[in-house]
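Weekly sync notes, structure subgroup
Attendees: PM, AL, DS (notes)

Item 1: joint prediction request from the bench team. They want all two components modeled as one assembly rather than separately. Inputs as received:
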Amino acid sequence: MSITDLTTTKKPDSALRLKILAKIGEQKPYDCFQCIRCTSGCPSMKMLELKPHEIVSLARLGFVEELITSGIVWACATCLKCKERCPQAVAPVDLIFALRNLAVEKEAKVPESYLHSLSAILETGFVQKPQNTVTRKLEKVDREKLGLPKFHEADEKFKAALFKVLEQSQEK
Amino acid sequence: MKVAVYWGCIIPTIQYGYEMSVRAVMPELGIELVDLDNISCCGTPVQSVNMFAALYLAARNLAIAERTGLSDLLLPCNGCYLSLSEAQHFLSRDEKLKEEINSLLKEENLRYEGSIKIWHTIDLLHDLVKEKKIREAVRRPLKSLKLAVHYGCHILRPSTLQTVDDSENPRKMDELIEWLGAKSTAYPEKLDCCGAMLLLSHPDAAFTFSGLKIKAVQDWGADALIVSCPSCQMMFDMRQKSVAATIGAKLGIPVLYYTQLLGTAMGIETAKLGLHLNRSPVDEFLRRTGLISTAASPRN
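Output from the run, pasted for the record:
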């Protein structure tokens, strides 16, 4: 897979580069010396050709739009090994989360289910309501039948407050 | 000792076996659990969409836990543990950010201080309940069992935050298994990720992550796989059949929460531990190991 075609692609975008740097705070992609320890331990490298060191490199060059439109940032399993093992404290996973956030802001390639999670939380406070399930003997059970206390969804005040948080985060 | 408990999303909406077994074992070990009012998602599921909202949600739940006046908070889910641990880290280092979050929390008359100590099931049992109490609680020692443990990524990394154990060589869960009389087997794939976080974008890859891990555990000859994270349990236990179909292998390993195993060793009825809800072949495992007799097996 190729994220960028360096002979034909447009120029690096320094404004987007600054935007992404502002999102990751203390972790600086410029400290990376491409030792590739992150990629060598990345489980998504084996399965989905995710190369954390390449993402760091492309981001600091300013090929941010290419990264978010390629969809590669959604191949991370967030096992956090790259962050743990980086000798320079660069934390590729944090950069990946920042790129995902930017993909959402720019309405680029975002797996729809991620947006569903947010709307579910806005509605009930949680990613889902309590589900009915079955025992191995196929007996239908729910929380009540299992003797578990009643589950409470978040109240209206919660929703109003979260809306305000989302609005405020967009002004940043 | 009273400990506040925050269940998150996955445990109270589908992983009932974890909630039941934690509720069953803790009081017997001297831990009185205090449920929280009006909590919400921990933030992890929205981190990819909006990191600021994720931080807010984590701080909100911590503020609700702090309101109880208790000094300890149990987070049985790995995802919640990471999210809340990360929030405590960021907010303790950035006064401006803390005030910004607090001004938003004011809408609900909440205030985050950073005053509560967070625990996961594993370090709470290992470091707070401790070896003596656990060994004393065992009624049916798990002799001659060879068990594989799976910690789950989010309680081990990154070590720049408060974590449960060493990131590359965790031992607490292994010791917790040994205190029950069983042997924790060392296996090379021990730190491999279950892939659950890829379910939304790359389900086949997620299933392959899990499949390769389960197959490895099975091939090394472990009697069961013991986990402590609801997302990992969903992959290894609930979805074991789909996982097997994805990698084209015959899989059939019992997968249990540590608290289900502990409860069984303590002599608690299996139905109270939610063991009738596991989808993997746990009955055969419990019977074969003499933990339940055929007659005493739960009605389900």
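Discussion: The first helix of chain B runs from residue 10 to 13.
Action: AL to compare against the crosslinking data before next sync.
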